[in-house]
Amino acid sequence: MKLYGRVWKFGDNIDTDIIIPAHYLHSSDPDYLGKHCMKPIRPNFFKRVKIGDIIVAGKNFGCGSSREHAPIAIKACGIGCVIAKSFARIFFRNAINTGLPVIENSELFAFIKEGEKLHVNLLKGIIINPATEKKFEIQPFPPFLQKIISAGGLMNYILKFRRQK
Q1: Which pTM does this prediction carry?
Q2: Structurally, how many domains does the chain consist of?
Q3: How high is the pLDDT of residue 150?
Q4: What is the pLDDT of residues 79-116, one digit of tens each?
Q5: What pLDDT score was predicted for residue 139?
Q6: Which of 106, 6, 124 is nearest to 61 (CA)?
Q7: Residue 61 maps to which CATH number?
Q8: Cα angle at 62 between 87 and 58, to 5 degrees?
Q9: Rounded to a whole number, what is the largest CA-CA distance in the chain?
């Protein structure tokens, strides 16, 4: 799986209340959630994101409550993947379950500027900044996770798998 997009940079400890504030959780509609993604710190974020853009963040991205709404909102507003120094464990799993690629890399944050573009190859385990030609190695996604992501999340993967039987 290959991704390409413009970088949106966020710092450490971006919690799920920043990603999607609790007062928007009365709905689980992805389009609705996507329109309110990152609203507390970037009110028009969803209007500025282009399909396939990439969030690059610091440590502990997705901390806070264990709501699946957070990765759904990120994915629904058009973000193709999130690359962070580290993730809250439950957010990481929820992201995979909803089909949002999440990548841990402790080096990229210091070498990337907001607005630059990145090439991400999940199969080969590499991130390239074409502006600087700097390369970053990442752990390639195992085949079973690639299948879940490609299917659009765990539930879609299970439904697809059941239909093939």
Answers
A1: 0.92
A2: 1
A3: 86
A4: 999 999 999 999 999 999 999 999 999 999 999 999 99
A5: 87
A6: 106
A7: 3.20.19.10
A8: 55
A9: 47
Task: In whole angstroms, give the CA distance from residue 5 to residue 142.
Answer: 22
Note the Cα 11 to chain centre separation in Å.
14
Kindly report the number of other CB atoms within 10 A of residue 83's CB atom. 25
Continuous H helices in the chain: 16-19, 30-34, 45-48, 69-76, 89-98, 108-111, 143-151, 154-164
- Residues 6 or more apart whose Cβ sits within 8 Å of residue 153: 96, 97, 98, 99
Q: pLDDT digit string (tens) for 23-70?
A: 999 988 999 999 999 999 999 999 999 999 999 999 999 998 878 899
Residue 98 to residue 10: CA distance in whole angstroms: 21
Half-sphere exposure of 36 (CA within 13 A, CB side): 19
Strand stretches in the chain, DSSP E? 2-9, 54-57, 81-84, 102-104, 117-121, 126-129, 134-137
Nearest to 61 by CA among 22, 33, 29, 94: 94
The one-letter amino acid at 89? R
Q: What tokens appear for 149 in the block?
A: 């992501």
Backbone angles phi, psi at 97, to 5 degrees: -60, -25
Q: Which domain holds residue 133?
A: 2-164
Please give the radius of gyration of the chain, using alpha carbons only, rounded to the nearest integer: 15
